[in-house]
Amino acid sequence: MIIGLVIILIKQKTFQPVFLASWEGLKLVFCWPNILYPIVATLLTMIFALLPGLSGATLMALAVSLTLSWEPLYVLLIFGAFVGGSTFMGSVTAILFNIPGSGPSAATLLDGYPLAQKGEAKTAIGCSAAASAMGSSFGVFVLILLIPFMSQAILIFSSPEFLMLTLWGLTTIAAISTGSILKGLIMGGLGFLISFIGQDPRTAEARYSFGITYLADGLSMIPILLGLFSISEIIALSVSGQETISGKTRVEELTGSVWKGVQAVFENFNLFIRSSIIGTIIGIIPGVGGTVASFVAYAQAAQTAKEPKHFGQGDIRGVLAPEAAHDAKDGGSLVPTLAFGIPGNEGTAILLAALLLHGLAPGKELLTNNLTLVFVLVWSLFFSNWITSILGVLVVSPLARLTLVRTQIISPIILVLTIIGAFTYKQRIEDVLLVFICGIVGYYLKKHAWPRIPFIIALVLGNLFETNFHISLKLNELGRINFWTRPIVIVLLILIIINLALPILQSRQKARKAND
Amino acid sequence: MVNNKLNPIFSRRELLQIALTTLGFSLITGCQNKEAIKEEGCNNLAGKQIRWIIPHAVGGGYDTESRVLKPFYEKHLGAEIFLDNVAGAAGVIGAKTIATAKADGLTLGILGASGLMLSALTGQINIPNPITDFSILGRVSRSWQVWVVSKDSPLKTFADLLAEAKKRPIIFGANEVGNTSFTTITIGCELLSINFDIVAGFAGTRNASLAAMRGEVDCVSFNFDSIFELINSGELRPILQFSNKRISEHPSLEGVRLLGGSEGVALEQAKNLGKDLDETNKLTQILIDLISVGRIVVAPLGLNQSLFDCLSKNLYKTLSSADYQALAKKDSKTSIDIANSAEAKANLEKVAKEILVFVPTIKKALEKVRE
After folding, report:
1. Please, what sign has the CA dihedral across residues A35, A41, A47, A52?
2. Which of residues 38-57 of A touch B (CB under 8 A)?
3. Minimal Cα distance from B206: which residue of A?
4. In what order do the strands lie in the sheet with B170-173?
C-alpha cells in the first residue's frame, strides 16, 4: 500500500521536483566519502548522549563554532546525524538504570525500567530500537509529503488545539492511575501546582518562588525525574535487599529477546502509527518538544489499552509509544525549521543557527533552490536513526547483563551517574539537592502506592496548558477564534469526554458483572 | 621632610628638586604602567579558561552572537572561552549568575540591557541593574524593533493600521509583559494615539509571529533580526521601523515608515492630533534609545583596573576587526553597531534616566493585562 502511494505521488506534478531532489540528496549522503560524515557524527552523538550531563544538543552547539569554515553540504551531513542520533542512547539508560538521558526518554523509563526489573531488558531495548528507527522513518516520510504544503501544515495548529491536546493528555491520568483513581488525581493536581512555580507566562510575575533565584524559572523536570525514579529505586533496592536490578543472577535467567521487542512493534502496529502521528504533529508545533510528544503518546497508549492498569508495571506498549513519538517528532520538527526558520526544539534551534551561518536561509528559497541540500539533511537524519538502532541492538546483550550486576556494585554507580547528570544539567548544586528530596519523596510514594506517573504527566503538560488556556480565552473574548468551528478541537473534546466517561462506565460494568 | 622645630632638613630648593624628580619619575613610570597594568591583566588571563554566560537558550540570537565572537575574542585575549547557557526567567537568572560571580576576569557574559532595565521598571524585584551591578566591557550590537503584519493581512501599510485603529482596537501579540516588545507596543501606541489591546503570553517570538500569520492578532513587534527569516520569506511584512533612519538595506523595508525623525510617523500623528511636537519628539527619541540599547558584554562589578582594561580593550579590538565583522554580518541583518566600554555605559546611563517618564504608562498597561 505504501509503495502504491509512493508511485501515485511520484506521478503528481507537485511531488516530482520533491522526489527528484530526494533522490539526488540520497546519492549525496551515501556516496564515498560523504557517508563517513553521518557515521562519525552518529557515533559521537551516541557517546555524548550516553554520558551523564552531556547531550546531542551539547555536541551540536560545539559543532556550530567548529564548522564555520566548512562547505554547507558537510555541515548538513553531520547536523542531520546529530538531530537523528541523539535520542536512542538516552532511552537505553532509562531502561537499564531508570536514568532518563533527556526529557523525551523520561516516558520510556515508566515501563522500560520495570521490564528490566523483570529480566526483560533485551525486549525493552529491542522494542525501543525498532520503534525509534521506524518512528523516525515515519516522521521523515511525512516531512517529504509535507514539503509542498509546509506553511499550511504549521498554521493549522493554534492555541485552542494545543489547549485541547494538553487537556486530553491530562485526562488520561485517570486511566493510568494504578490503585486509586483519587490518588492519581491528587498526584496530578500536585504536578500541576508544581508546574506553576516560577514566572507567570503572561504577566512575568513571580509565583511561589519566595524570592529564591533557583525557583525563578520553576523547578526543572530532569532533576525531579532523576529523583522520583532513579534515586527512589536505589533506595528501594537497598531497603529490599534485592540482589540485582532484575532479581536474577544468571544470564540464562534473563527472559525476553531483542526480536520479541521488535515483534512487539508489529504486533501493536496501530499503536505505533498513532504514536508516530502524535510525535510528528507535536514536532511540527514549534516550542512544544519531544518530552510532551513522548508523554502524550504514552498517555494515549494507556488510555486506549484494554488493561491500562498494566502501564507502569512493565507493559511493552509503554516503551513502544513514547519511543515512536519522540523519534517521529524529528521529521516533524524540521517542518517549521525549514519552512519558517522556527525551531521546534533545542536541537533544531542549533541546526537553524548552523544553517544561517552558512548562508542557507529557511523559507521558499531553501525549499526551491536548495531542495537537494534539504534532503541531504533529511536522509542523514534518517540514516543516523537507523545506525543508532542497529548498533543499539548489536550491543543489547552486554547491556542487558548490567541488570545482573549486584546491587551493592551497581547502586553506587547509578547514584554517582544520577548526581553527575543532575549537576551537569544546568550546573546548579540546588538541582542535586532537589534530586535527593524527590528521591526520598519518590520512595515513600512508591512504598504507599501513590502513583508517580500522573504527577509527571501533569508537570510536563501544566505550563503548556496554562499558556494556551489564557491565550485561547483572550482570543475568544476578542472574537478572533471560535472554538466550535475548529474540527481538531471538536475531535479532541470528544476524546476528552470519552477519557473521563470510560473509567466510570468500566467500573459500573465491572460492578454489574460482579453482581451477576 | 620638615622637623617639628620648623628648621627644614631639606632646603626649599632641595625640596623642589625632589618634588620635580619624583613627579617626573611618576610620569614616566605611570605611562609605562598603563601598558604594564594592561599587560599584567592580560597576563593573568593568558592560558586560562573564561566562563562566558549566555542568559538564553542554545540557538537563539544571543547564543549565535556569542559563538561568532568567541574564536576572535579568544585570539585577542590569549585565553580559552567556554560558553555556558544559563537560561531562565527571561535572562534574569543568567544575569544574576554573572553579577554574583567572582570579579577575577574569569566570568563574562552577554546581556540584553533594555530587557533588564524594563524588568526593573515594571516592578520586578531582585533584578540586576545593568549599570550598577556589572562592569560594562562594550556593546556587541544594537537591536531594532519593527511592527510586522501577516502577508495576508488587510493592513498593508502603517496608514491602514492607523485608519483601522479609529474603528476598533488593534490586537497585538506579545510574549510576557514587561519585555521590550511589550514596551514598544504600549509606549508606541500611546505616542501614536492608537487604540490597542494585547494578547500576552505567547511562548517566544516565533509563536507570536505564527499568531499574526494565522490572523489571530493584527500585528506583532519584535527585533528585526529575530524575525528576519519570516520577513525574508515574505510571510511577515514590516509596516513600521522603530528608529530615525532605515535599519537595514533589506528590500522588505523599502517604503516602510519610520517612527522617529522629522519625517517620522510620531511627529506626523502629533501634528494631526494637535499634540506638543517637542514633547512628542523627545519621548519618541527616548523610546528609540531604550529599545535599541543593544547587547552588551559585561563582567561582575569590582574588576581591578588592569583586568578591566585588558578585557574591554581587547573586546573592542575584536569587534572592530575586519574578519569578525565579515562573519557577524552574515548573522546580523542590520548594521553592526559596536561601542567601546565608555560609550556603551554612557548610553545606558542616559537611557536609564530618561525612561522613568514611561513608568506610569507601562504600569497602566500591566494592570490591564493582570486584570
Report:
1. negative
2. 57
3. A342
4. B196-199, B170-173, B219-223, B145-150, B236-241, B257-258
The string of DSSP letters for B71-130 reads: HHHHHHHTSEEEEEE---GGGHHHHHHHHTS-SSSSEEEEEEHHHHHHHHHTT-SSPPPT
Cell triple for residue A77? 551531513
Chosen from B52, B54, B58 to mutate, greatest number of chain A CBs within 10 A: B58
Closest alpha carbon within chain A to B236: A340
* Distance (Å, whole) CA A317 – CA A96: 17
Evaluate whether B236 touches B151 at the Cβ level (below 8 Å).
Answer: yes
The answer to whether residue B59 neighbours chain A at the CB level (below 8 Å) is yes
Least CB-CB distance to B201: which of A154, A342, A470? A470
Q: What is the ipTM of this complex?
A: 0.80
Which cell is A261 given?
A: 521487542
Q: Which three cell numbers stand for residue A437?
A: 528530596
User: What is the spatial distance between Cα B211 and Cα A308, in angstroms, rounded to a whole number?
Assistant: 37
Pair type for strands B295-300 and B134-141: antiparallel
Angle at A252 between CA A248 and CA A253, to 5 degrees: 30
Please, are residues B296 and B337 in contact by the beta-carbon 8 Å criterion? no
Reduced to 3 states (helix: H, G, I; strand: E, B; else coil), residue A435 is helix
Residue B143 has φ and ψ, to the nearest 5°, of -115, 140
Hunting for cell 551540536 — which residue is that?
Answer: A60
Residue A349 sits at the chain B interface (C-beta within 8 Å): yes
Q: For residue range A336-380, what is the model confidence (pLDDT) as tens digits?
A: 888 877 776 777 877 877 887 777 877 777 877 788 888 999 899
Q: How far apart are CA B203 and CA B186, in angstroms?
A: 19
Domains, chain B, in order of start with CATH, read 43-142+295-347 (3.40.190.150), 145-290 (3.40.190.10)
**Strand B257-258 versus strand B236-241 pairing type:** parallel
Q: What is the DSSP string of B202-238?
A: -SSHHHHHHHHHHTSSSEEEEETTTTHHHHHTTSEEE
Sequential DSSP letters for A250-266: SGGG----HHHHHHHHH
Exposed/middle/buried for residue A8 (C-beta within 10 Å: 0-12, 13-18, 19+): exposed
Tell me the one-letter amino acid at B300.
P
- Phi and psi dihedrals of A244, rounded to 5? -140, 170
What is the spatial distance between Cα B146 and Cα B256, in angstroms, rounded to a whole number?
10
CB contact under 8 A, A198 and B366: no
Q: pLDDT tens digit string along A166-200?
A: 888 788 776 666 567 788 889 999 999 999 998 88
Could A201 and B171 be called an inter-chain contact, meaning their C-beta atoms sit closer than 8 Å? no
The three cell numbers locating residue A189: 493536581
pLDDT tens sequence for chain B (371 residues): 444 444 445 566 766 665 555 555 445 444 444 444 445 668 878 888 999 999 987 777 888 889 889 999 999 999 999 999 888 777 888 999 999 999 999 999 999 988 888 877 766 667 888 999 999 999 999 889 999 999 999 999 999 999 999 999 999 999 877 788 888 999 999 999 999 999 998 888 888 999 999 999 999 999 998 888 889 888 899 999 999 999 988 999 999 999 999 999 999 999 999 999 999 999 999 999 998 888 999 999 999 999 999 999 999 999 999 989 888 877 666 667 899 999 999 999 999 889 889 988 888 888 877 76
Cα distance from A256 to chain B (closest Cα, Å)? 40
Give A213's contacts in chain B (Cβ within 8 Å): 93, 96, 126
A152 touching chain B per CB within 8 A? no
Whether the upstream peptide bond of residue A33 has omega within 30° of 0, thus cis, is yes
Q: Where are the beta strands (DSSP E) in A71-184?
A: none
The residue with cell 529491542 is A126
